[in-house]
Amino acid sequence: MATVYTSRVEELGAIPSTGTVGDSYDNALAEAVNGLYKTELIRMQGPWKTVEEVELATLEWVWWWNHERLHGELGMRAPIEIEEAYYAEQEKLPSLTG
Predict the structure, then answer these.
(1) Max intra-chain CA distance, the chain
(2) Within a domain: residue 82?
(3) How far is CA 37 from the centre of its chain?
(4) Which residues contact 92 (CB under 8 A, 6 or more apart)?
(5) Is the full-model pTM beyond 0.85?
(6) DSSP assignment of 31-69, as one string?
(7) How many domains are contained in the chain?
């Protein structure tokens, strides 16, 4: 899979966002989320019988993660609260195009 990814990145002329082999410093957030996904969903609710079961459970987990799970890094708020507050604040700013 990594070979296919690397070939596709090169084909597109893009610069990959991955670091050197064996380190994930530039992908720390993704690694943290992946670890929590595996801990909170995959290992806790398995064993899984079908890929479809995993897909549906993943959709539900992502919704829960964004709408209900409280995140310490966000002041014990859910990401949706942060997003809604951000857009509410944007509506208060004066328009630069008028």
Answers:
(1) 57
(2) yes
(3) 10
(4) none
(5) no
(6) HHHHHHHIIIIIHHH---S-HHHHHHHHHHHHHHHHHT-
(7) 1
In a domain, 56, yes or no: yes
The residue behind tokens 């410093």 is: 25
Q: Closest by alpha carbon to 61, among 36, 31, 90, 84?
A: 36
Q: Domain of 75?
A: 49-98
Q: Is 39 inside any structural domain?
A: no
Provide the 8-state DSSP code for 77: B
- Of the candidates 23, 7, 65, 20, which has an alpha carbon nearest to the alpha carbon of residue 40? 65
* C-alpha span between 67 and 5 (Å, rounded): 31
Tokens coding 8: 């596709």
- pLDDT tens profile 74-85: 999 999 999 999
**Domain assignment present for 83:** yes
Backbone dihedral angles phi then psi of residue 12, each to the nearest 5 degrees: -80, -10
Q: Which residue has the tokens 């079961």?
A: 53
Residue-wise pLDDT for 3-44, tens only, equals 887 888 888 888 776 666 656 566 778 888 999 999 999 999
